[in-house]
Prior knowledge:
Blueprint: H1 21-33, E1 45-46, E2 52-56, H2 64-67, H3 75-86, E3 107-111, H4 124-141, E4 145-149, H5 151-165, E5 180-183, E6 186-191, H6 196-200, H7 206-220
Amino acid sequence: MLPFDPTLDRDIYDMQCRQCPRLAEFLGLVQQENPSYFCKPVPPFGAENAAVLVVGLAPGMHGANATGRPFTGDWCSDLLYGTLHRHGFASKPQSLSRDDDQRLINCRLTNAVKCLPPANKPTPAETKTCASYLAHEIAALSPRVIVCLGAVAHDAVLQCLAQRLGKLRRADFKFVHGAVHACGALQIVDSYHPSRYNTNTGRLTPEMFAAVFAKVRELVG
């Protein structure tokens, strides 16, 4: 069973989406080399009526792209799910496959770009194309808090919100790790992405990441 809720707006996820030729071609090449990998647009995962929506950049090649679940089976997985578990948002501290019994509590995970991009870098045009899915997801869930993992996710969320709320002054929503931005009743919380590079270089430590989700826990109660 795919880890998304079909009762939500269908436009949140489309397994057959091939709107970005470069990404579709790359997924085909990766599938040839790794026949067991998911290699499709990765659906969101989590609670149906979540107050917290966590938005990442894009699926990792040997993580979400392989397993079909966001942040599952790669370097980011233990840090993200371990932190979510510590703050009451996940039933287990690890997510190893989409067939395990991991459950998110009042939290949902998604990505700004649903398909694996070459070198983990989607183009601005690809991010814009995929924004329709993210915009529908935000509208369907109406979360109280959106956690943006990285500047690309932050910008994608702002673009989606601007479609609904009108133009937002970017100067009022600068991406800064640990920042909390009020957007009406919605709170946007920024964090560096829990990537191997960020954690290995010390740009993001487990303590820094935990502090972000401590803030999120305070905001949702």
